[in-house]
UniProtKB/TrEMBL annotation:
Acetylation listed as a keyword: no
Similarity annotation: Belongs to the peptidase A1 family.
Protein species of origin: Trametes coccinea (strain BRFM310) (Pycnoporus coccineus)
PROSITE patterns: ASP_PROTEASE, PEPTIDASE_A1
Cysteine disulfide partners in this protein: C311-C354
One GO-annotated biological process of the protein: proteolysis
Name of protein: Acid protease
Domain of life: Eukaryota
Length: 403
């Protein structure tokens, strides 16, 4: 949980640092994509809408530690291809993963550049410091530091290979990263970059879709270049995306258990981040939301930004969060986080206190896995919009009709 809460933030921080810092980073150049093979997973052939016949399905695993945390899957890097497991993170834009050069990374199956005939090792080393101040378990300044090296190689996703993709290999990481069951992060930001840009240049529709299910449901999937309408109910509702790199949608109101307040009625730009497990709002917004749930939810002193209450009091506490957005056709719609998401789990340093899902972080308003796992989501890069429809498992009412 702790690395999860922090990770989306890490990814956010990393994206700006990585893209800004390296001066001799490989320069993006027009790439010819090599279509080595095309894998169309069973079931999609007829299920996927006509244009998405070539869509690439990537199965995802759920990092589960008592609650759903993050979804990760495999890409391959190099020639011959080496499997690299990554979080497909809509909160960042670059690709970085641990290499054998990293002696402090305890993950297995690290990428070995010396075994790839197409790997070009860059010389630019960048140190990324992360001081998020939120999370479960100690998150103190400089706990999260990655040192990365620039490079390029062939990246293969779902059997489709794209050459000369800019990437970063992690050559040093602090111990907080060791809990992660994946090797790295694949940025899936709102501007096409990396292998995604290469795939769209090769003719794949410029969008991807997430089916981020709870652990108990399984079969989570990232579908690149398509929409699988067997995985959601009703029609997708689309809203304009306003982020420049991040995915952001304007929200007019937040309600908790059907009630709102003047603070919660303010409009705000909400970031959608598949690399973060929970939700983050300004302190004022966070406390206004908690006030509508229970007066016993208090800041957890050992973890700035985190809140909790005695675990004995948390189950059954109503905490339905409706975040209101406006569709492209001008109608309001809610994305709803059900009460079952309130309990993130016990704090490691105080197991009788359970962390609650909203973390206070001034200057950032962000939703992650606890919302995304209840909806099928379409991240439409080409049209700069996001689409949502309830997953099969969602029990909550949802307006119908096209957005
Ligand atoms: C990723 O690849 C590894 C090794 O081939 C495999 O064990 C694992 O199941 C794959 N993960 C997913 C989510 O497909
Ligand atoms: C790496 O370290 C973490 C934290 O100590 C541990 O949970 C994990 O199992 C270790 N992974 C491996 C592959 O040794
Ligand atoms: C959104 O949720 C609020 C609070 O529960 C409710 O009052 C409102 O009617 C909902 N809006 C829509 C369009 O469903």
């Amino acid at each position: 949980m702790l690395s999860t809460v922090a990770l989306g933030l890490l990814a956010l921080a990393a994206s700006s640092e990585v893209t800004a810092a390296p001066s001799d980073a490989p320069v993006a150049k027009p790439q010819k994509i090599t279509l080595q093979s095309r894998v169309t997973p069973k079931g999609h052939v007829t299920a996927v809408r006509a244009k998405a016949a070539q869509a690439i399905g990537v199965p995802l695993d759920d990092f589960f530690l008592g609650t759903d945390l993050q979804w990760f899957g495999n890409i391959s890097v190099g020639t011959p291809p080496q499997t690299v497991s990554v979080v497909f993170d809509t909160g960042s834009q670059t690709l970085e993963f641990a290499s054998t050069e990293c002696t402090t990374c305890n993950q297995t199956n690290k990428f070995d550049g010396s075994k790839s005939s197409t790997y070009v090792r860059g010389n630019r080393i960048t140190t990324l410091d992360f001081a998020t101040g939120v999370g479960v378990d100690p998150v103190v300044n400089n706990d999260y530091v990655l040192t990365v090296r620039s490079g390029t190689d062939t990246v293969t996703v779902g059997g489709v290979a794209a050459k000369d993709i800019s990437l970063f290999t992690i050559i040093k990481q602090t111990p907080k990263f060791n809990i992660d069951p994946f090797l790295g992060i694949q940025g899936m930001g709102s501007q096409a970059e990396g292998f995604f840009a290469a795939l769209t240049r090769a003719g794949l529709p410029s969008l991807f879709s997430y089916f981020l299910t709870p652990h108990t449901v399984g079969n989570a999937e990232l579908l690149i270049g398509g929409i699988d309408d067997t995985k959601f109910k009703g029609d997708l509702i689309y809203a304009n995306q306003q982020g420049d790199g991040d995915w952001e949608v304007e929200s007019s109101q937040i309600s908790v258990n059907g009630k709102t307040t003047s603070v919660l009625k303010q409009s705000r730009s909400v970031i959608f981040d598949s690399g973060t497990s929970n939700i983050l709002f300004d302190t004022q917004t966070t406390e206004a939301m908690y006030a509508l749930i229970s007066p016993n939810i208090k800041p957890f002193a050992a973890e700035p930004g985190a809140y909790g209450l005695p675990c004995s009091e948390i189950d059954g506490l109503p905490a339905t969060i409706d975040i209101t957005f406006t569709s492209q056709s001008g109608t309001p719609f809610n994305l709803t986080i059900p009460s079952s998401e309130l309990n993130v789990g016990p704090f490691a340093s105080d197991p009788s206190t359970c962390q609650t899902l909203i973390n206070a972080f001034d200057g950032l308003e962000l939703v992650g896995g606890s919302l995304l796992k209840h909806y099928y989501s379409v991240w439409d890069v080409g049209n700069q919009r996001m689409g949502f429809a309830p997953n099969g498992e969602s029990l909550l009412s949802y307006p119908r009709g096209r957005g």
